[in-house]
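I hope you will forgive my troubling you with a question about protein structure. Here, with my thanks, is the record as I have it:
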Amino acid sequence: MRTAVIGGGNVGTLMAAEFAHKGHEVTVYTSKPECWGRELRVYDAEENLLLRGRPSRVTGSMEEALEGAEIIWITMPAQLFPALGERMEPFVEAGQKIGVVPGSGGAEFSFQRLLRKGCTLFGFQRVHSIARLKQYGKSVYELGRKEKLQVGAIPGAAAAGLCGDLEGLFDMPCIPLENYLSVTLTPSNPLLHTTRLYSMFRNHGRGMVYPRNFLFYEEWTDEASALLIACDRELQALCERIPMDLGSVKPLREHYESRTISEMTRKLKGIPAFKGLTSPMKRVENGWALDWQSRYFTADFPFGLKVIRDIAALFEVSAPTMDEVWNWYEKTAEGEPAAFELGITLEEFESLYG
């Protein structure tokens, strides 16, 4: 199979290595092709080599990357989707399949032009594996592989047919979802990251510096869990209001097998693949400052939480905890980051997921 991987970060590097290892023809599109080696290596947490793969080419040319690709994988952060869709449009062709990993972030709104050209859009509810770069363009860690894939598509009926190809690519079961909205509303990073950051830095002021970089998960608190569960309840209320089958959007308490706030805290503090992960902060002269350029801020708030809030507003569903978290970001964030705007009517929204 000819595939293109757009983005050379954690997940993109892992996927490129896996597909090339299986003998597929893989082209990687990245802004830094000169930094890539001929071979990609995948390691586990104990530094054991799991596999090697050689992409066919690594390029900074979008035209070269997309030409002839049966599946195009987008692994870039959500805030880049609108501009990426514009760059891709001249080169995509009818019949190409475009997969977004993970599929949240309003991808279906950013890539509507590609849909109109006859492409199929699909996305994973969650990444197939947690990945962390070991050396850019050369090696990556695989730290937590999922048991199955759950895939939504536009048009919705395409998901069943896609699963055959995806099971072969990833060597794991693939479950088709009823619609792509089941991907968009999955309560993953847009709730997980945003509530944790708000709980840590709700009293942050411009120019504040901290004595250290905090462990994002291993120092998780009950306050963060309470916010997370409250946002998840609001999301479930939204799913109940929307006249579509959204039964696959599982509550986080079910996903993490945590009935109470304290159980959620223990669960998130103890996930092996999350160990050692720090917060989006950067070293400065007298300590640690928030890194407002981290995708935790540039993607998970304005193209994660904001997507869900806009959909809730469209369906007139109250989401006070999400509003509280979003309002903190909007008031506190430095710079002027772009933010998602839904900008369609209720009828247009519902017709999109056919």
Q: What stands out?
A: The first helix runs from residue 10 to 21. The chain has a mean pLDDT of 96. DSSP finds 15 helices and 14 strands in the chain.
